Structure formats: C-alpha cells, structure tokens
C-alpha cells in the first residue's frame, strides 16, 4: 500500500515513504534533524569503530560518562551521568526506576508525545496541566495544585517541543521549591544548544545541590546523530545510580559511543549548526509573520505556526508534501504546524510552498 492509498502524509514517515506524493524531490523539515548532517569527527570515529564490529562493545558507558563530565565541567562527576539508546530511552529508564504502575505523572501539553505514550504503556496515570497563554507559559501554580500523594514525576521541556517556547530560572526554581520530596522533575533539555537569544536556567546547579531533578539530553539534534540513537541523563548521584541499575549490559553499540564522544569535541560543527539555526530561525519567523501566520517565539531548532483560519494541521501538511516539503502537525494542537529550521534554501522552499498554497486559494 502506498502512502497515498493510506490517506496521505503521516507524521514520522521517511522521505522515501512519502516521495510518491510529490512530483519534486522532498525537503524534510518534520523531525528536527541537523540540516548539515552528522559531525565529521563523529563519522570518522564511528568508521574507525566499525572495523571492530565483530567485538562486543564495553559492557558499561563509563568512558562516555567520564567524557560528559569533562565536557560539562562545573564540578560535574561521571556518577552524575547515565546514557541510553536515545533520549526516549532515557525517559523510559527514568520511569522504570522512579515510578510504578498505578502511580501518577504530570505533563504539560502541548508537549512531546512520547511522554504520554511511554507512561501509559507502563500503567501510569497521566495528569495534564496545560501551558497557558499565547506564549504557552508554564503554569507553576497549576502543576503544584495537581500534585497528589501518588504523583511521582513531573515533565517539563525547555525549550519546549512542539512550541519552541522557553522559560527562565525563576520558573524552574519555583517548581523545585514547591514540589514535595516524593516527586522528581524530568527536565527535558534536548534543544538547549539552540537557545542563543535567551538564558535558560542553570539546571546543573540543581543536580549539584542534590535536588530531585533528572536532565534529559540527546545527541540526535545539535550533533546530528539521530541515526546513532544516543541520549543521556544527568541527575544527583543517588538518582543516577538508581536509574543506572535499569540499563541493559551492552546497551550502546561501539559506533554510537565512539561517535558521541567525538561529537563533543567537534566545536566547529556545533558552531556552524547553531549559527545557521539562529539566523534562519529569525528569518523564517519574520517571513511567516509577514505572510500572516501566527508564529510562536522559538529558541529551538524549529518554529511553530498556526494554520490559516478554517484549515487544520493535517490538511496543511498534506498540501505541503505535494509541493515537496515535509513538516508535521504539532503535538496536541490540531491547528498548528511544527517546521524544522533547515539550511537557507530549504527554509526558502517552505516559504515558497506556503506562498503557492496561498495563491491557489485567492
């Protein structure tokens, strides 16, 4: 069955799976991938490791955790870190260690869809406290009011997926100060490198202070290693040790570990990625607003905008893919689109496709 037989474009598909829906080559701006590809240093390290693919990798991630501690500095220790096969598996390990079936977790929609999916598969009850206002602000009082004796986890993403919006230290401090001791904050910070125009909270300070927080990071976005599936968490030592017990032996492959460690040293690739994102995020946001779209303020590597009146996100994504551009409907928001920031020509192609669609209805 082709994708057109299945009802058109669906979020999460590859370029090959939707190419039949367009007469022109597809530009993929739907998965927040690095438009410049992987770090060249990471590719070289993975290629070198591949020659030993007949040998099992190291049983633990001790070398990677040591490298992460050195990279982050600020008196962080290897014992503060644990790795996983993607940021999503970081979330899963946190849940395996810190929450049980029948207990409760709080999420703040619109937010990453994997939170709900993972929690519900594990028999956890999910309570929702929506972000509020036009800028999707965190409702601290609402979160604290939703806490019950059975609540164990609270999830926040900063910058947030899918909105791109962000919050400062005062929000994080207020939440950590207000949450009771039986609750851990899952602080998803996988887009933190892209926040160049706003000071995000210093979450590592709370780790060093032993607060109930687990920070989630990934090599998929800024480092361009989505296909390698390497993520990591940062937590106070007792929490990190508890989570680490849930990992499988040989949970990362040799190529992924080698690539991740090398990527941390590739400052040139990271700088190029972030510089392009900062410039193009501003250009794309301004151009979308000039075309009449309502655009949320973003500090991530994507922008979110509202569909024209009378149109839903599924319809617009289907129309855009026929013009050769893949975006995706925003999580929890049926009338909003999330578009990854690509290279300049890719972003221009998105703008031209939207202009063509506007012209077609005039």
Automatic annotation (TrEMBL):
A molecular function (GO) term: histidinol-phosphate transaminase activity
- Kindly give the Gene3D superfamilies that the UniProt entry links to this protein: Aspartate Aminotransferase, domain 1, Type I PLP-dependent aspartate aminotransferase-like (Major domain)
What this protein needs as a cofactor is:
pyridoxal 5'-phosphate
Residue ranges annotated for the Aminotransferase class I/classII large domain, each copy included: 25-354
Q: Which UniProt keywords apply?
A: Amino-acid biosynthesis, Aminotransferase, Histidine biosynthesis, Pyridoxal phosphate, Transferase
Reactions catalysed: L-histidinol phosphate + 2-oxoglutarate = 3-(imidazol-4-yl)-2-oxopropyl phosphate + L-glutamate
**Which EC numbers characterise this protein's activity in its record?**
2.6.1.-
Among the Pfam families in the record, one is: Aminotran_1_2
Q: Which portions of this protein are annotated as coiled-coil regions?
A: none
**Which superkingdom heads the taxonomic lineage of this protein's source?**
Bacteria
Q: Tell me the InterPro entries matching this sequence.
A: Aminotransferase_I/II_large, HistidinolP_aminotransfase, NHTrfase_class1_PyrdxlP-BS, PyrdxlP-dep_Trfase, PyrdxlP-dep_Trfase_major, PyrdxlP-dep_Trfase_small
Any one Gene Ontology biological process term? L-histidine biosynthetic process
Which pathway does the UniProt entry assign to this protein?
Answer: Amino-acid biosynthesis; L-histidine biosynthesis; L-histidine from 5-phospho-alpha-D-ribose 1-diphosphate: step 7/9
The record's section on PANTHER family has: HISTIDINOL-PHOSPHATE AMINOTRANSFERASE, HISTIDINOL-PHOSPHATE AMINOTRANSFERASE 2
Q: What family does the entry list?
A: Belongs to the class-I pyridoxal-phosphate-dependent aminotransferase family.
Q: What is this protein called?
A: Aminotransferase
The record lists the organism as Falsiruegeria litorea R37
